[in-house]
């Protein structure tokens, strides 16, 4: 069986929103390392590869590898019933063709911390005595027991939503993507690239990306207008994985390639998951 709990359902919503226009039906490969998805669009133009590692889940348990065939449009509809900041748990049992989704609200840590501190500051003769019938222990110990009990419950403990959707038998082969050495590599803030793609998509259907020693140039020619954006290499400003402050270019030779803006616009719906 598989059981995976994610802290915010909004993460799954954004993920599906980024790939549902490319892939209709796909297999989620579940194992002890996490949940993976790999599929191509109907036109065999783009490859979608998603890896949700086990450490990214609040709780992840998969006793043996499983394939979950899912219609992404249906899954998107079911996820709309969850709050963006709510907990989402995915569950599927062996030999059962149903994927269960359980939604619950998160415990507000600072509210509980405030309650804990308030309770610790109360003496035995203060209003804390109202808990005495349930926690016949010293005030501090009773506070700890009460806090432990509260953290085991969702904030809206009287509401837990559970949905089930039928799984599908999808015949799809796992694609092996070989390692490739590229002639050029450009790293820049994802927000900047998203803006460039969005702006140029208003002019034409494709964008040509040229990488040279002078920088990287994005050009789009439409029927009534054309435009270009040039980014020059600049200092990074960060040595870690945080959002970079500039543009980094690694180049072995001049590169000039055209891409469909239709697909790039879809690709960059997932830009919210990374700063660069």
TrEMBL record:
<dbReference type="GO" id="GO:0006298">
    <property type="term" value="P:mismatch repair"/>
</dbReference>
<dbReference type="GO" id="GO:0030337">
    <property type="term" value="F:DNA polymerase processivity factor activity"/>
</dbReference>
<dbReference type="InterPro" id="IPR022649">
    <property type="entry name" value="Pr_cel_nuc_antig_C"/>
</dbReference>
<dbReference type="GO" id="GO:0003677">
    <property type="term" value="F:DNA binding"/>
</dbReference>
<dbReference type="InterPro" id="IPR000730">
    <property type="entry name" value="Pr_cel_nuc_antig"/>
</dbReference>
<feature type="domain" description="Proliferating cell nuclear antigen PCNA N-terminal">
    <location>
        <begin position="1"/>
        <end position="105"/>
    </location>
</feature>
<dbReference type="GO" id="GO:0006272">
    <property type="term" value="P:leading strand elongation"/>
</dbReference>
<dbReference type="InterPro" id="IPR022648">
    <property type="entry name" value="Pr_cel_nuc_antig_N"/>
</dbReference>
<feature type="transmembrane region" description="Helical">
    <location>
        <begin position="109"/>
        <end position="131"/>
    </location>
</feature>
<dbReference type="GO" id="GO:0043626">
    <property type="term" value="C:PCNA complex"/>
</dbReference>
<dbReference type="GO" id="GO:0006275">
    <property type="term" value="P:regulation of DNA replication"/>
</dbReference>
<keyword id="KW-0235">DNA replication</keyword>
<comment type="function">
    <text>This protein is an auxiliary protein of DNA polymerase delta and is involved in the control of eukaryotic DNA replication by increasing the polymerase's processivity during elongation of the leading strand.</text>
</comment>
<keyword id="KW-0812">Transmembrane</keyword>
<keyword id="KW-0238">DNA-binding</keyword>
<dbReference type="GO" id="GO:0019985">
    <property type="term" value="P:translesion synthesis"/>
</dbReference>
<keyword id="KW-0539">Nucleus</keyword>
<keyword id="KW-1133">Transmembrane helix</keyword>
<feature type="domain" description="Proliferating cell nuclear antigen PCNA C-terminal">
    <location>
        <begin position="177"/>
        <end position="274"/>
    </location>
</feature>
<protein>
    <recommendedName>
        <fullName>DNA sliding clamp PCNA</fullName>
    </recommendedName>
</protein>
<keyword id="KW-0472">Membrane</keyword>
<dbReference type="InterPro" id="IPR046938">
    <property type="entry name" value="DNA_clamp_sf"/>
</dbReference>
<dbReference type="Pfam" id="PF00705">
    <property type="entry name" value="PCNA_N"/>
</dbReference>
<dbReference type="Pfam" id="PF02747">
    <property type="entry name" value="PCNA_C"/>
</dbReference>
<comment type="similarity">
    <text>Belongs to the PCNA family.</text>
</comment>
């Amino acid at each position: 069986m598989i059981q995976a709990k994610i802290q915010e359902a909004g993460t799954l919503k954004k993920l599906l929103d980024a790939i549902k226009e490319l892939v209709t039906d796909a297999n989620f490969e579940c194992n002890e390392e996490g949940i993976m998805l790999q599929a191509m669009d109907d036109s065999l133009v783009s490859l979608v590869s998603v890896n949700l590692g086990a450490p990214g889940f609040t709780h992840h348990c998969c006793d043996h590898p499983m394939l979950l065939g899912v219609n992404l449009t249906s899954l998107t509809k079911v996820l709309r019933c969850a709050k963006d900041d709510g907990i989402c748990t995915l569950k599927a049992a062996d030999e059962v063709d149903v994927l269960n989704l359980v939604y619950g609200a998160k415990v507000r840590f600072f509210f509980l911390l405030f309650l804990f501190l308030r309770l610790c500051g109360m003496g035995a003769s203060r209003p804390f005595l109202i808990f005495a019938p349930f926690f016949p222990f010293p005030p501090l110990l009773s506070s700890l027991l009460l806090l432990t009990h509260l953290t085991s419950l969702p904030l809206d403990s009287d509401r837990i939503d559970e949905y089930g959707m039928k799984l599908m038998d999808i015949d799809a082969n796992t694609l092996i993507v070989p390692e490739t050495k590229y002639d050029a590599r450009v790293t820049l803030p994802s927000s900047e690239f998203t803006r460039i793609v969005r702006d140029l998509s208003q002019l034409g259907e494709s964008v040509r990306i040229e990488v040279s020693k002078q920088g990287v140039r994005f050009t789009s020619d439409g029927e009534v207008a054309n435009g270009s954006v040039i980014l020059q290499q600049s200092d990074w400003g960060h040595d870690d994985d945080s959002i970079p402050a500039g543009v980094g270019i690694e180049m072995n030779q001049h590169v000039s390639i055209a891409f469909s803006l239709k697909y790039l616009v879809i690709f960059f719906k997932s830009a919210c998951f990374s700063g660069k």
